[in-house]
Amino acid sequence: MVAAANFSPKFVFERANDHVPSMKSNHVIRNLCQKSEVGIMVAPSNVGKTALAVALGSHVVQGKPVLSLPTCKGVVVHVCGEGGNAVKDRISVSLAGAEGASDYLVIRKKVDLGDAGEVMEFIRDLQAYLDETNDGLSLVIFDTFIHCIGDLQENSSVDMSTAIAGAQEIAEAFEAHALLVHHTGREEERGGRGSSAIRSNVDSEFTIKADPESNEVVLTTTKQRNLENGLRFSYALRKKLLGYDDEGYERSTVVAELLDGSERKATKPQAQQSTKQIAILSSMKAALACGEDRISTTALMPLVAYREWSSSADEKAQKSGFRGVLSALEKRGMIISEKRGKELIWSLPEALLPGKGAS
């Protein structure tokens, strides 16, 4: 068969037998986030996720390590779905006295990651800015992700795959990292809100949880496609004075202070049991100590002293939240389920059965 003279193949096949891996540094924050990738930072409300994003961005524009993690100095763009002035307040405090820092840019227009035309306009306009400043881009923060999906539905796997692809296109265009700031769902144990396609399509996931006893907040890497998983570090929220208004009243903001010595490798991420999990396990052990070796979801729920399983008072939402905690316990190997008709029946592993010495 003779190929047509103007034949242009649709698919390009690259021979990898003799490929030599590149040894060029590929990190934006070493061991945390890489160039040309998309990461997602998942957190509940009121733990300072925007403050942490600003802290990371402020380190990157200075080329300053995040604790012991080196950064690739470069421009940071913070796309604010809301509260642009508050973000700029935090940036100004974080960069006070810094010399020679790259630009930390804030834009308050919501970028629709699901709109291919708008993504290309964002790339074009940002490239024009970078050409003028002769500096490279390191990090783009979309805060929050839900404000950057336009009319797409966050529970649609197709829509969310499209939105993540838009973020990926931006990351690859600049060899930068695109970081999506995202909320947890109603049940914090179940991770980020919306379709599971969000987590499936990103390269990295950073989960944030507050420790009410220490007043610290812990970030843990819960997914890394191309890096070792389980890195974690802590931060605390600190009030910082901005100045005094025209009537003499104090104006302040809140910043995230990274805590020295907190960076470590988590051998067992999320090893601690939540209050909800402890309540269920205690009730199961008490119920099964009476002679039965299994208990149904319907029979177990009224026995558990914990009351609020969902932020919604709706009975259906409460049951869904209860089942979510059961599912989380099962994933950790703390309880076992079996299907009986339309209902799940729960039992404990032998090591946790009453009378077996389990604590």
UniProtKB/TrEMBL annotation:
Q: Which InterPro entries does this one have?
A: P-loop_NTPase
Recorded hits in SUPFAM superfamilies, A to Z, give:
P-loop containing nucleoside triphosphate hydrolases
Q: What is this protein called?
A: Regulatory protein RepA
Q: Which organism is it from?
A: Phaeobacter italicus
